[in-house]
Amino acid sequence: RVSIRDFRSILEAVAEVVAKVEDVDQLTEFARQRLGAQIAGAHADPSGVLHAYMLAPAVEDVFRRLQGVRTGNAFDAQELEGVLELFRIATGKVDAGSAPPVILCAGDIRRSVATFAERHFRDTSVISFRELDPQTQVVAVGTIGSETYDQKGAA
């Protein structure tokens, strides 16, 4: 969830690209980039450090292929089940008292990853690298799909 308190920045971001971009999802991503410092700051610890899970390249590729389904590309449901299991493994390691997990991913798949996470892991937030302020310090707490991806046979 993103606060719309800075409504002016949202409108400016949309106004800059609305003549070139008609897709609402893309307009949303442009607005999120403009609000990046606010978004990342909301998930950072008190010292300003963002603790986040990263996605292994093979897992990112699954989400890219998933986006291609809309344009007629084939998709393997078992592959998505494998990714779901990898998310469960990673997020299952989070302590009950700690902050909800944050996933940091490439901008081109943020929306797909966020939709997936919302459906299966309600308290998980997804942020793209494009939304990070250059001064944001990121600590990777793990990589979803690093070694276990090949072991699970989802690739």
Task: Describe the strand arrangement of the main beta sheet, using strand numbers.
Answer: 3-2-1-4
Biggest beta-sheet profile: 4 strands, parallel
Instruction: Describe the global form.
Output: globular
Q: What's the multimeric state?
A: single chain
**In DSSP terms, counting alpha (H) and pi (I) runs of 4 or more, how many helices?**
7
**Amino-to-carboxy terminus distance:** 31 Å
SSE-based structural type: alpha/beta
By DSSP, the count of extended strands is 4
Percent of residues in beta strands?
Answer: 5-15%
Helix content: 40-55%
Order of helices and strands: HHHEHHEHEEH
- In the predicted model, the low-confidence regions spanning at least 5 consecutive residues are 149-155
Could you tell me the radius of gyration in angstroms?
16 Å
How confident is the prediction overall: mean pLDDT?
Answer: 77
List keywords for this structure.
single chain; 155 residues; alpha/beta; 7 helices; 4 strands; 47% helix; disordered C terminus
In short:
47% of the residues lie in helices and 15% in strands. It is of the alpha/beta class and 155 residues long. The longest helix is centred in the middle third of the chain and has 15 residues, at 77-91.
Topology:
Layout lengths: L6 H11 L6 H11 L1 H8 L5 E7 L1 H12 L8 H15 L10 E4 L4 H11 L4 E4 L8 E8 L3 H5 L3
Parallel strand pairs: 1-2, 1-4, 2-3
